[in-house]
Protein backbone atom coordinates (compact mmCIF):
# COMPACT_ATOMS: atom_id res chain seq x y z
CA UNK A 1 0.00 0.00 0.00
CA UNK A 2 1.55 3.32 -1.01
CA UNK A 3 1.44 6.47 1.03
CA UNK A 4 -1.31 8.15 -0.96
CA UNK A 5 -3.53 5.09 -0.49
CA UNK A 6 -2.82 5.18 3.22
CA UNK A 7 -3.59 8.89 3.37
CA UNK A 8 -6.88 8.46 1.52
CA UNK A 9 -7.92 5.70 3.91
CA UNK A 10 -6.87 7.73 6.95
CA UNK A 11 -8.91 10.69 5.74
CA UNK A 12 -11.99 8.55 5.34
CA UNK A 13 -11.44 7.13 8.83
CA UNK A 14 -11.16 10.66 10.22
CA UNK A 15 -14.42 11.54 8.52
CA UNK A 16 -16.10 8.49 10.01
CA UNK A 17 -15.01 9.15 13.60
CA UNK A 18 -15.50 12.92 13.31
CA UNK A 19 -18.29 13.54 10.80
CA UNK A 20 -18.36 17.18 11.90
CA UNK A 21 -15.07 17.93 10.14
CA UNK A 22 -14.51 18.16 6.42
CA UNK A 23 -11.74 15.79 5.30
CA UNK A 24 -10.51 18.15 2.58
CA UNK A 25 -9.81 20.81 5.19
CA UNK A 26 -7.41 18.72 7.25
CA UNK A 27 -3.98 20.27 7.64
CA UNK A 28 -1.87 17.09 7.53
CA UNK A 29 1.00 18.36 9.65
CA UNK A 30 -1.10 19.87 12.40
CA UNK A 31 -2.01 18.15 15.62
CA UNK A 32 -5.59 16.85 15.48
CA UNK A 33 -6.19 17.97 19.05
CA UNK A 34 -5.28 21.57 18.24
CA UNK A 35 -6.92 21.51 14.84
CA UNK A 36 -10.23 19.90 15.68
CA UNK A 37 -10.44 19.90 19.49
CA UNK A 38 -9.96 16.12 19.49
CA UNK A 39 -10.57 14.78 22.97
CA UNK A 40 -9.47 11.44 24.40
CA UNK A 41 -12.62 9.72 23.09
CA UNK A 42 -12.07 11.05 19.56
CA UNK A 43 -8.45 9.87 19.75
CA UNK A 44 -9.58 6.42 20.86
CA UNK A 45 -12.17 6.22 18.08
CA UNK A 46 -9.52 7.14 15.52
CA UNK A 47 -7.03 4.63 16.94
CA UNK A 48 -9.72 1.92 16.85
CA UNK A 49 -10.53 2.67 13.23
CA UNK A 50 -6.84 2.72 12.21
CA UNK A 51 -6.11 -0.52 14.04
CA UNK A 52 -9.06 -2.37 12.52
CA UNK A 53 -8.76 -1.03 9.00
CA UNK A 54 -5.03 -1.63 8.56
CA UNK A 55 -4.91 -4.74 10.74
CA UNK A 56 -2.18 -3.37 12.98
CA UNK A 57 -1.87 -3.53 16.74
CA UNK A 58 -1.66 -0.17 18.46
CA UNK A 59 -0.44 -0.10 22.04
CA UNK A 60 -1.78 2.60 24.36
CA UNK A 61 1.67 4.14 24.41
CA UNK A 62 1.48 4.52 20.62
CA UNK A 63 -1.62 6.73 20.57
CA UNK A 64 0.66 9.76 20.35
CA UNK A 65 1.91 8.40 17.00
CA UNK A 66 -1.52 9.24 15.59
CA UNK A 67 -1.43 12.87 16.68
CA UNK A 68 -1.53 14.30 13.15
CA UNK A 69 -2.44 12.95 9.74
CA UNK A 70 1.22 12.93 8.63
CA UNK A 71 2.31 11.22 11.83
CA UNK A 72 -0.43 8.62 11.47
CA UNK A 73 0.56 7.98 7.86
CA UNK A 74 4.18 7.39 8.83
CA UNK A 75 3.17 5.18 11.74
CA UNK A 76 0.87 3.03 9.60
CA UNK A 77 3.51 2.73 6.89
CA UNK A 78 6.14 1.65 9.41
CA UNK A 79 3.80 -0.87 11.03
CA UNK A 80 2.78 -2.36 7.69
CA UNK A 81 6.41 -2.59 6.60
CA UNK A 82 7.34 -4.32 9.85
CA UNK A 83 4.56 -6.83 9.41
CA UNK A 84 4.34 -7.58 5.70
CA UNK A 85 2.73 -10.94 6.42
CA UNK A 86 -0.31 -9.29 7.99
CA UNK A 87 -2.80 -8.48 5.27
CA UNK A 88 -4.90 -5.39 5.95
CA UNK A 89 -8.34 -6.43 7.12
CA UNK A 90 -11.30 -5.03 5.31
CA UNK A 91 -13.26 -4.16 8.38
CA UNK A 92 -15.54 -1.21 8.70
CA UNK A 93 -14.78 1.04 11.68
CA UNK A 94 -18.27 0.44 12.99
CA UNK A 95 -17.69 -3.29 13.40
CA UNK B 1 -57.42 8.67 26.04
CA UNK B 2 -56.12 11.18 23.54
CA UNK B 3 -53.25 13.46 24.42
CA UNK B 4 -51.00 15.90 22.69
CA UNK B 5 -47.36 15.13 22.08
CA UNK B 6 -45.51 18.38 22.69
CA UNK B 7 -42.06 19.71 21.93
CA UNK B 8 -40.13 19.48 25.23
CA UNK B 9 -37.58 22.04 26.32
CA UNK B 10 -34.13 20.53 25.94
CA UNK B 11 -32.27 23.20 27.87
CA UNK B 12 -32.54 26.67 29.34
CA UNK B 13 -31.52 28.09 26.05
CA UNK B 14 -33.99 26.40 23.79
CA UNK B 15 -37.00 28.38 22.63
CA UNK B 16 -37.78 26.76 19.33
CA UNK B 17 -36.76 23.95 17.05
CA UNK B 18 -37.41 22.90 13.50
CA UNK B 19 -39.14 19.61 12.84
CA UNK B 20 -36.84 17.69 10.51
CA UNK B 21 -38.52 14.35 10.19
CA UNK B 22 -41.34 12.19 11.54
CA UNK B 23 -40.05 8.79 12.67
CA UNK B 24 -43.57 7.46 13.36
CA UNK B 25 -46.55 7.71 11.06
CA UNK B 26 -50.26 7.95 11.94
CA UNK B 27 -51.59 4.55 12.95
CA UNK B 28 -48.22 3.25 14.17
CA UNK B 29 -47.83 1.85 17.68
CA UNK B 30 -45.48 3.74 20.01
CA UNK B 31 -43.73 2.70 23.17
CA UNK B 32 -42.15 4.77 25.96
CA UNK B 33 -38.63 5.80 25.05
CA UNK B 34 -39.17 5.35 21.33
CA UNK B 35 -38.20 8.34 19.19
CA UNK B 36 -41.18 9.85 17.40
CA UNK B 37 -39.58 12.71 15.54
CA UNK B 38 -36.26 14.41 14.87
CA UNK B 39 -35.91 18.13 15.47
CA UNK B 40 -33.07 20.48 14.71
CA UNK B 41 -31.93 22.75 17.53
CA UNK B 42 -28.88 24.93 18.17
CA UNK B 43 -27.36 21.76 19.67
CA UNK B 44 -27.82 19.73 16.53
CA UNK B 45 -30.37 17.07 15.63
CA UNK B 46 -32.25 15.55 18.54
CA UNK B 47 -34.64 12.61 18.50
CA UNK B 48 -37.70 13.43 20.59
CA UNK B 49 -38.93 10.41 22.48
CA UNK B 50 -42.37 9.34 23.57
CA UNK B 51 -43.32 8.92 27.21
CA UNK B 52 -46.50 7.08 26.39
CA UNK B 53 -47.67 3.68 25.34
CA UNK B 54 -50.18 3.91 22.56
CA UNK B 55 -50.72 4.81 18.97
CA UNK B 56 -49.92 7.89 16.94
CA UNK B 57 -53.18 9.35 15.61
CA UNK B 58 -52.25 12.46 13.71
CA UNK B 59 -49.32 14.71 12.88
CA UNK B 60 -50.11 18.35 13.68
CA UNK B 61 -46.89 19.76 12.24
CA UNK B 62 -45.12 19.02 8.98
CA UNK B 63 -41.34 18.61 8.53
CA UNK B 64 -39.61 21.91 7.83
CA UNK B 65 -41.78 23.81 10.31
CA UNK B 66 -40.29 25.93 13.09
CA UNK B 67 -42.08 25.27 16.37
CA UNK B 68 -41.89 26.84 19.84
CA UNK B 69 -41.20 24.79 22.96
CA UNK B 70 -44.46 23.39 24.32
CA UNK B 71 -46.25 23.36 20.98
CA UNK B 72 -48.30 20.28 20.17
CA UNK B 73 -46.64 18.14 17.51
CA UNK B 74 -49.03 15.22 17.27
CA UNK B 75 -52.07 13.55 18.77
CA UNK B 76 -51.46 10.31 20.59
CA UNK B 77 -54.04 7.73 21.67
CA UNK B 78 -52.85 6.27 24.96
CA UNK B 79 -54.02 3.14 26.68
CA UNK B 80 -55.67 4.15 29.96
CA UNK B 81 -54.10 7.03 31.80
CA UNK B 82 -51.32 8.99 30.17
CA UNK B 83 -48.01 8.08 31.67
CA UNK B 84 -46.60 11.53 31.12
CA UNK B 85 -46.79 13.14 34.56
CA UNK B 86 -47.35 16.89 34.54
CA UNK B 87 -44.54 17.55 37.01
CA UNK B 88 -42.39 14.45 37.36
CA UNK B 89 -39.88 14.39 40.16
CA UNK B 90 -36.35 13.17 39.57
CA UNK B 91 -36.81 10.50 42.21
CA UNK B 92 -39.57 8.92 40.16
CA UNK B 93 -38.62 5.42 39.06
CA UNK B 94 -38.72 6.31 35.37
CA UNK B 95 -35.10 6.72 34.32
CA UNK B 96 -35.78 9.34 31.69
CA UNK B 97 -37.69 12.26 33.09
CA UNK B 98 -39.21 14.51 30.46
CA UNK B 99 -38.37 17.43 32.74
CA UNK B 100 -35.68 19.69 31.34
CA UNK B 101 -32.36 19.91 33.04
CA UNK B 102 -30.91 23.36 32.96
CA UNK B 103 -34.22 24.71 31.78
CA UNK B 104 -35.39 28.20 32.48
CA UNK B 105 -38.84 27.07 31.44
CA UNK B 106 -40.12 25.37 34.59
CA UNK B 107 -42.07 22.71 32.80
CA UNK B 108 -42.58 22.16 29.11
CA UNK B 109 -45.80 20.36 29.96
CA UNK B 110 -47.37 23.50 31.40
CA UNK B 111 -46.89 25.52 28.27
CA UNK B 112 -50.20 26.92 27.07
CA UNK B 113 -51.99 24.52 24.80
CA UNK B 114 -52.87 27.46 22.60
CA UNK B 115 -49.20 27.94 21.75
CA UNK B 116 -49.58 28.43 18.03
CA UNK B 117 -47.51 26.31 15.73
CA UNK B 118 -46.14 28.08 12.72
CA UNK B 119 -48.02 27.28 9.53
CA UNK B 120 -46.74 24.11 7.94
CA UNK B 121 -44.16 24.57 5.23
CA UNK B 122 -44.61 22.41 2.19
CA UNK B 123 -40.95 22.23 1.15
CA UNK B 124 -39.06 19.09 2.05
CA UNK B 125 -35.63 18.93 3.64
CA UNK B 126 -33.06 16.80 1.78
CA UNK B 127 -32.74 13.13 2.64
CA UNK B 128 -29.27 13.38 4.15
CA UNK B 129 -26.93 16.16 5.13
CA UNK B 130 -23.51 15.86 6.72
CA UNK B 131 -23.18 17.55 10.15
CA UNK B 132 -20.44 19.83 8.83
CA UNK B 133 -22.67 20.85 5.92
CA UNK B 134 -25.60 21.41 8.28
CA UNK B 135 -23.47 23.73 10.40
CA UNK B 136 -22.18 25.59 7.36
CA UNK B 137 -25.75 25.99 6.09
CA UNK B 138 -26.76 27.52 9.39
CA UNK B 139 -23.75 29.86 9.30
CA UNK B 140 -24.59 30.98 5.80
CA UNK B 141 -28.31 31.22 6.46
CA UNK B 142 -29.20 28.64 3.83
CA UNK B 143 -32.51 26.85 4.34
CA UNK B 144 -32.18 23.09 4.28
CA UNK B 145 -35.12 22.82 1.90
CA UNK B 146 -33.15 24.82 -0.66
CA UNK B 147 -30.44 22.19 -0.58
CA UNK B 148 -32.65 19.31 -1.65
CA UNK B 149 -32.29 20.24 -5.30
CA UNK B 150 -28.63 21.19 -4.89
CA UNK B 151 -27.80 17.65 -3.82
CA UNK B 152 -30.02 16.10 -6.49
CA UNK B 153 -31.66 13.76 -4.00
CA UNK B 154 -28.37 12.56 -2.51
CA UNK B 155 -26.49 13.49 0.66
CA UNK B 156 -25.70 17.18 1.02
CA UNK B 157 -22.04 18.00 1.57
CA UNK B 158 -20.38 21.26 2.52
CA UNK B 159 -19.58 22.03 -1.14
CA UNK B 160 -23.28 21.82 -2.03
CA UNK B 161 -24.03 24.33 0.72
CA UNK B 162 -21.39 26.72 -0.52
CA UNK B 163 -22.56 26.31 -4.11
CA UNK B 164 -26.09 27.14 -2.99
CA UNK B 165 -24.82 30.11 -0.97
CA UNK B 166 -23.11 31.54 -4.04
CA UNK B 167 -26.41 31.31 -5.94
CA UNK B 168 -28.65 32.77 -3.26
CA UNK B 169 -27.04 35.42 -1.10
CA UNK B 170 -28.74 34.98 2.29
CA UNK B 171 -28.61 36.74 5.62
CA UNK B 172 -26.12 34.78 7.76
CA UNK B 173 -27.44 33.55 11.08
CA UNK B 174 -24.52 33.11 13.39
CA UNK B 175 -24.89 29.64 14.91
CA UNK B 176 -21.92 30.31 17.17
CA UNK B 177 -23.58 33.40 18.59
CA UNK B 178 -26.82 31.50 19.17
CA UNK B 179 -25.09 28.74 21.10
CA UNK B 180 -23.00 31.24 23.05
CA UNK B 181 -26.12 33.17 24.01
CA UNK B 182 -27.85 30.00 25.14
CA UNK B 183 -24.93 28.89 27.31
CA UNK B 184 -24.81 32.42 28.67
CA UNK B 185 -28.48 32.32 29.63
CA UNK B 186 -28.15 29.02 31.51
CA UNK B 187 -24.94 30.03 33.28
CA UNK B 188 -26.25 33.50 34.19
CA UNK B 189 -29.21 31.82 35.83
CA UNK B 190 -26.87 29.49 37.71
CA UNK B 191 -24.69 32.35 38.93
CA UNK B 192 -27.72 34.45 39.85
CA UNK B 193 -29.68 31.79 41.70
CA UNK B 194 -27.24 29.22 43.04
CA UNK B 195 -24.96 30.08 45.97
CA UNK B 196 -22.00 28.03 44.78
CA UNK B 197 -19.23 26.87 47.06
CA UNK B 198 -16.02 25.37 45.70
CA UNK B 199 -13.67 22.68 46.98
CA UNK B 200 -10.55 21.20 45.43
CA UNK B 201 -8.69 17.99 46.16
CA UNK B 202 -5.43 16.64 44.68
CA UNK B 203 -5.13 12.91 44.36
CA UNK B 204 -2.55 10.42 43.21
CA UNK B 205 -3.96 8.94 40.00
CA UNK B 206 -1.12 6.36 39.93
CA UNK B 207 -3.15 3.38 41.17
CA UNK B 208 -5.98 4.11 38.73
CA UNK B 209 -3.59 4.56 35.84
CA UNK B 210 -1.66 1.36 36.66
CA UNK B 211 -4.91 -0.59 36.89
CA UNK B 212 -6.10 0.92 33.61
CA UNK B 213 -2.85 0.09 31.79
CA UNK B 214 -3.09 -3.50 32.94
CA UNK B 215 -6.77 -3.72 32.03
CA UNK B 216 -6.24 -2.24 28.57
CA UNK B 217 -3.02 -4.06 27.60
CA UNK B 218 -4.53 -7.31 26.27
CA UNK B 219 -7.58 -5.64 24.70
CA UNK B 220 -8.13 -4.44 21.13
CA UNK B 221 -8.29 -0.66 20.93
CA UNK B 222 -12.08 -0.58 20.69
CA UNK B 223 -12.54 -2.33 24.06
CA UNK B 224 -10.10 -0.18 26.02
CA UNK B 225 -11.18 2.24 28.72
CA UNK B 226 -10.20 5.88 29.03
CA UNK B 227 -9.41 7.70 32.25
CA UNK B 228 -12.55 9.82 32.05
CA UNK B 229 -14.69 6.69 32.45
CA UNK B 230 -13.03 5.83 35.77
CA UNK B 231 -13.61 9.37 37.03
CA UNK B 232 -17.23 9.32 35.87
CA UNK B 233 -17.91 6.00 37.60
CA UNK B 234 -16.26 7.19 40.83
CA UNK B 235 -18.38 10.34 40.81
CA UNK B 236 -21.53 8.30 40.16
CA UNK B 237 -20.81 5.92 43.06
CA UNK B 238 -20.01 8.79 45.42
CA UNK B 239 -23.21 10.59 44.34
CA UNK B 240 -25.22 7.47 45.16
CA UNK B 241 -23.58 7.11 48.57
CA UNK B 242 -23.48 10.67 49.86
CA UNK B 243 -26.73 12.56 49.80
CA UNK B 244 -26.99 16.16 48.70
CA UNK B 245 -25.27 16.14 45.32
CA UNK B 246 -27.49 14.02 43.11
CA UNK B 247 -30.84 15.54 42.17
CA UNK B 248 -32.53 18.84 41.48
CA UNK B 249 -33.25 22.02 43.38
CA UNK B 250 -36.81 22.78 42.48
CA UNK B 251 -39.69 24.63 44.10
CA UNK B 252 -37.45 25.97 46.86
CA UNK B 253 -36.12 22.63 48.01
CA UNK B 254 -33.72 19.85 47.11
CA UNK B 255 -35.32 16.82 45.52
CA UNK B 256 -32.85 13.93 45.62
CA UNK B 257 -32.84 11.53 42.69
CA UNK B 258 -33.08 7.79 43.26
CA UNK B 259 -31.10 7.20 40.09
CA UNK B 260 -27.71 8.58 39.13
CA UNK B 261 -27.51 9.95 35.60
CA UNK B 262 -24.16 11.64 35.08
CA UNK B 263 -24.08 14.48 32.57
CA UNK B 264 -20.85 14.34 30.60
CA UNK B 265 -19.76 17.78 29.42
CA UNK B 266 -18.64 17.31 25.82
CA UNK B 267 -17.16 20.14 23.79
CA UNK B 268 -18.83 20.80 20.47
CA UNK B 269 -16.29 21.45 17.75
CA UNK B 270 -16.27 25.06 16.70
CA UNK B 271 -17.45 26.25 20.11
CA UNK B 272 -19.95 25.52 22.84
CA UNK B 273 -20.67 22.37 24.75
CA UNK B 274 -23.42 19.95 25.64
CA UNK B 275 -23.79 17.76 28.72
CA UNK B 276 -25.96 14.77 27.82
CA UNK B 277 -26.50 12.06 30.43
CA UNK B 278 -24.91 8.68 30.96
CA UNK B 279 -27.93 6.89 32.39
CA UNK B 280 -27.61 4.86 35.61
CA UNK B 281 -23.85 5.41 35.63
CA UNK B 282 -23.50 4.05 39.18
CA UNK B 283 -25.10 0.72 38.18
CA UNK B 284 -23.05 -0.02 35.09
CA UNK B 285 -19.74 -1.82 34.93
CA UNK B 286 -16.84 0.09 33.39
CA UNK B 287 -17.00 -1.68 30.03
CA UNK B 288 -20.69 -0.85 29.65
CA UNK B 289 -20.19 2.72 30.80
CA UNK B 290 -17.34 3.08 28.31
CA UNK B 291 -19.57 1.84 25.47
CA UNK B 292 -22.32 4.29 26.49
CA UNK B 293 -19.84 7.14 26.75
CA UNK B 294 -18.31 6.28 23.38
CA UNK B 295 -21.74 6.15 21.73
CA UNK B 296 -22.69 9.46 23.34
CA UNK B 297 -19.60 11.21 21.96
CA UNK B 298 -20.28 9.69 18.54
CA UNK B 299 -23.83 11.08 18.62
CA UNK B 300 -22.59 14.51 19.71
CA UNK B 301 -20.07 14.51 16.85
CA UNK B 302 -22.73 13.45 14.38
CA UNK B 303 -24.96 16.19 15.80
CA UNK B 304 -27.69 13.71 16.66
CA UNK B 305 -28.67 13.30 20.32
CA UNK B 306 -31.80 11.94 21.97
CA UNK B 307 -34.11 14.15 23.99
CA UNK B 308 -33.90 11.86 27.04
CA UNK B 309 -30.14 12.36 27.16
CA UNK B 310 -30.62 16.10 27.43
CA UNK B 311 -33.17 16.05 30.18
CA UNK B 312 -31.99 13.27 32.46
CA UNK B 313 -28.67 14.30 34.08
CA UNK B 314 -28.79 14.54 37.88
CA UNK B 315 -25.15 15.63 38.34
CA UNK B 316 -22.45 16.66 35.86
CA UNK B 317 -18.77 15.85 35.33
CA UNK B 318 -16.59 18.16 33.26
CA UNK B 319 -12.95 17.77 32.28
CA UNK B 320 -10.41 20.06 30.71
CA UNK B 321 -7.62 17.56 31.18
CA UNK B 322 -7.06 17.18 27.47
CA UNK B 323 -6.24 20.87 27.25
CA UNK B 324 -3.52 20.58 29.87
CA UNK B 325 -5.34 22.67 32.46
CA UNK B 326 -4.64 21.71 36.09
CA UNK B 327 -7.73 23.05 37.86
CA UNK B 328 -11.14 24.17 36.71
CA UNK B 329 -13.94 25.90 38.60
CA UNK B 330 -17.15 24.79 36.94
CA UNK B 331 -20.62 26.31 37.18
CA UNK B 332 -23.57 24.17 38.22
CA UNK B 333 -26.07 23.31 35.49
CA UNK B 334 -29.46 24.18 37.03
CA UNK B 335 -31.61 22.62 38.39
CA UNK B 336 -28.77 20.24 39.33
CA UNK B 337 -26.94 20.99 42.56
CA UNK B 338 -23.38 19.82 41.90
CA UNK B 339 -20.73 19.55 39.23
CA UNK B 340 -17.33 17.86 39.47
CA UNK B 341 -14.38 19.18 37.48
CA UNK B 342 -11.31 17.16 36.52
CA UNK B 343 -8.08 18.81 35.40
CA UNK B 344 -5.11 17.35 33.55
CA UNK B 345 -3.36 14.37 35.10
CA UNK B 346 0.19 15.56 35.37
CA UNK B 347 3.42 14.26 36.89
CA UNK B 348 4.17 16.25 40.02
CA UNK B 349 6.26 16.08 43.18
CA UNK B 350 4.18 14.28 45.81
CA UNK B 351 4.99 13.49 49.43
CA UNK B 352 4.31 9.95 50.55
CA UNK B 353 5.64 8.37 53.75
CA UNK B 354 7.95 11.33 54.23
CA UNK B 355 9.50 10.90 50.79
CA UNK B 356 9.18 13.18 47.79
CA UNK B 357 8.22 11.10 44.79
CA UNK B 358 6.93 11.81 41.30
CA UNK B 359 3.29 10.79 40.84
CA UNK B 360 0.56 11.50 38.27
CA UNK B 361 -1.64 14.00 40.09
CA UNK B 362 -5.27 14.82 39.35
CA UNK B 363 -6.99 17.84 40.87
CA UNK B 364 -10.71 17.31 41.33
CA UNK B 365 -12.96 20.27 42.05
CA UNK B 366 -16.49 20.33 43.32
CA UNK B 367 -18.93 23.18 42.79
CA UNK B 368 -22.00 22.55 44.95
CA UNK B 369 -25.17 24.35 45.99
CA UNK B 370 -25.00 25.91 49.48
CA UNK B 371 -28.79 25.72 49.75
CA UNK B 372 -28.38 21.96 49.89
CA UNK B 373 -24.99 21.12 51.42
CA UNK B 374 -22.05 22.67 53.26
CA UNK B 375 -18.32 22.37 52.73
CA UNK B 376 -18.09 19.61 55.32
CA UNK B 377 -20.24 17.14 53.44
CA UNK B 378 -18.76 18.43 50.18
CA UNK B 379 -15.34 17.41 51.49
CA UNK B 380 -16.68 13.96 52.29
CA UNK B 381 -18.08 13.70 48.76
CA UNK B 382 -14.77 14.66 47.11
CA UNK B 383 -12.76 12.37 49.41
CA UNK B 384 -15.09 9.50 48.59
CA UNK B 385 -14.38 10.01 44.89
CA UNK B 386 -10.64 10.10 45.64
CA UNK B 387 -10.87 6.90 47.72
CA UNK B 388 -12.71 5.12 44.94
CA UNK B 389 -10.04 6.15 42.42
CA UNK B 390 -7.35 4.98 44.80
CA UNK B 391 -8.97 1.53 44.68
CA UNK B 392 -9.89 1.21 41.03
CA UNK B 393 -10.79 -2.46 41.35
CA UNK B 394 -13.78 -1.26 43.42
CA UNK B 395 -15.13 0.61 40.41
The percent of residues in helical segments of chain B reads 25-40%
| Beta-strand percentage range of chain A | under 5%
CATH superfamily of chain A: ACP-like
Under the CATH scheme, which class of chain A? Mainly Alpha
Radius of gyration of chain A: 12 Å
The beta-strand count of chain A equals: 0
Low-confidence stretches of chain B: 81-125
Structurally, the number of domains of chain B stands at 2
Q: Class of the largest domain in chain B, according to the CATH hierarchy?
A: Alpha Beta
Number of helices in the DSSP assignment of chain A: 4
CATH superfamily of the largest domain in chain B: Chloramphenicol acetyltransferase-like domain
What class, by secondary structure content of chain A?
Answer: mainly alpha
- Sum up the overall morphology of chain A in one term: globular
Rg of chain B, please? 22 Å
Poorly predicted ranges of chain A (pLDDT <50, ≥5 residues)?
A: none
CATH fold topology of the largest domain in chain B:
Chloramphenicol Acetyltransferase
Form type of chain B: globular
Helicity of chain A, as a percent range: 40-55%
Quaternary structure state of the chains depicted:
heterodimer
Q: What distance separates the N and C termini of chain A?
A: 22 Å
Mean pLDDT of chain A: 85
